[in-house]
Design brief:
Keywords: Aminoacyl-tRNA synthetase, ATP-binding, Cytoplasm, Ligase, Nucleotide-binding, Protein biosynthesis
Oligomer: single chain
Domain Glutamyl/glutaminyl-tRNA synthetase class Ib catalytic: 4-305
Largest sheet: 3 strands, parallel
Family: Belongs to the class-I aminoacyl-tRNA synthetase family. Glutamate--tRNA ligase type 1 subfamily.
Strand content: 5-15%
Mean pLDDT: 95
Number of domains: 4
Low-confidence stretches: none
Protein name: Glutamate--tRNA ligase
Number of strands: 12
Motif ('HIGH' region): 10-20
Number of helices: 19
């Protein structure tokens, strides 16, 4: 049995788009499901647009998503000699030829074709001409000889059988006049040399496949199996754009999504397995195969992603969430992030994470734990802190000061004792103290909230309200 080898081959010319991230995930899961290998190739032959920053974004994004390659990344720009070698071999075999057309001649060809209602393409001017007819020392490109009869058939693992008449294919350039290989040529040579068995990529590459197949067949190489994934659209069915919301992996990370949640969502965006919705990485590897990928474009559903993220947040480790919250709070003015505050956040995390849908919301809800007295209050908290409520707080402060072991259980008992003694409803006691210690009208359970703050801080915050 041949070992299945897949690859993710992004161009480092911008951000790691969500569509590319899904392609990387599908390649990774497919390889893992079949006990194969997943590789990474950086297609950086466009030296003007490729940047180290974009390369770093790709590496960071994949690492954050937990998508790891089985071999060192291949940089396409380091393989130019090999690309040239294959182009010259095709030239030597008579399967490619030198084209001496000038830019002006090519422009005229396109215009003539369009004037005759035909696609603007090269007309094969130098295909059968003797190179000796070219001006001495004239620059030339190397073009492959496209088949002129019959058709090319691709058995796509997602799209099914796809056909194109060979008459529709022109003699594409594989080596430019400056000696650099074209993308269409380089990608074939690299996939062949890397022993790639399955090319899984967006269906915007489907037309490229017919052109690339010419090189495979001219070299006598076996074609890999192709699987072209439908693209991801915005919620309205239009091309995904900024107006829809986040588009890149970095944006989703910054907006507080967990990598497990994003991967889980991307997996279900165009692939399905019954009603299964929340799947661990182990379950994803076990279940994923290409027969579950649909043919229709997927629509980004940000509300669904938010729901899935909330589910993963509740399952996440408290220490991990606390570390992320503390990092985010460092950027918030007026919030301390020392060890005392960290301990408070960790203690209250079980309650905090039940109420948050993103890490941003989680950090916002935890910020009160690091604020200094006197606190500022939101409008609803201000409304709660009436003169009557402040009177209740004064009595409650004495009750809480008497609690020796400041645990949630003992705090709850003290609140109930105080409410019963004063013939108050529990909410009439809990809401004022919540407003006083958090500056807000919402928080996790008040007993857990006070326990996380500790007795001294709780009494200091109540005192600031009473004497402010």
């Amino acid at each position: 049995m041949t070992t299945i080898r897949t690859r993710f081959a992004p161009s480092p010319t911008g951000l790691l788009h969500i569509g590319n991230a899904r392609a990387a995930l599908f390649n990774f899961l497919f390889a893992r499901h079949h006990g194969g290998e997943f590789l990474l190739r950086i297609e950086d032959t466009d030296r003007e647009r490729s940047t180290q920053q974009a390369v770093d974004v790709i590496f960071d994004g994949l690492a954050w998503m937990g998508i790891t390659a089985d071999e060192k990344p291949v940089f396409q720009s380091t393989r130019q000699d090999r690309h040239t070698e294959v182009a010259l071999e095709l030239l030597e075999k008579g399967l490619a030829y030198k084209c001496y057309c000038t830019p002006e001649e090519l422009k005229q060809m396109r215009e003539d074709a369009m004037a005759n209602g035909k696609p603007p393409r090269y007309n094969g001017m130098w295909r059968d001409r003797d190179p000796s007819e070219a001006p001495a020392g004239a620059p030339y490109a190397v073009r492959i000889k496209a088949p002129r009869e019959g058709e090319t058939v691709i058995e796509d693992l997602v799209q099914g059988e796809v056909r194109v008449a060979n008459a529709e294919l022109d003699d594409m350039i594989i080596l430019r006049s400056d000696g650099t290989p074209t993308y269409q040529h380089a990608v074939v040579v690299d996939d062949h040399d890397m022993d790639i068995t399955h090319v899984i990529r967006g269906d915007d590459h489907l037309t490229n496949t017919f052109r690339q197949a010419m090189i495979y067949r001219a070299m006598g190489w076996d074609l890999p199996r192709f699987a072209h994934l439908p693209l991801i659209h915005g919620p309205d069915g239009a091309k995904l754009s900024k107006r829809h919301g986040a588009q890149s992996v970095v944006e989703f990370r910054d907006e507080g999504y967990l990598p497990e949640a994003l991967c889980n969502y991307l997996l279900r965006l165009g692939w399905g397995h019954g009603d299964a919705e929340i799947l661990s990485r182990e379950e994803q590897i076990k279940l994923f195969d290409l027969d579950g990928v649909g043919r229709s474009p997927s629509r980004m559903d940000y509300a669904k992603l938010l729901h899935i993220n909330a589910v993963w947040m509740r399952q996440a480790d408290d220490e991990r969430l606390t570390s992320d919250v503390m990092d985010r709070l460092k950027a918030v003015e007026g919030v301390s992030t020392d060890d005392t505050v960290r301990a408070r956040v960790l203690a209250l995390m079980p309650g905090l994470k039940e109420r948050a849908r993103t890490l941003v919301e989680l950090a916002d809800s935890a910020a009160f734990l690091g604020r200094h007295v006197p606190l500022s209050f939101n409008a609803k908290a201000e409304k709660i802190l009436t003169p009557e409520a402040r009177t209740i707080l004064g009595g409650l402060a004495r009750e809480l000061a008497a609690v020796e072991d400041f645990t949630p259980e003992n705090i709850d008992a003290a609140l109930r004792r105080f409410a019963e003694a004063g013939e108050h409803k529990l909410g009439q006691v809990a809401q004022p103290v919540r407003a006083a210690v958090t500056g807000s009208n919402t928080s996790p359970g008040i007993d857990a909230t006070l326990a996380a703050l500790g007795k001294d801080e709780t009494l200091a915050r109540i005192g600031a309200v009473l004497h402010g």
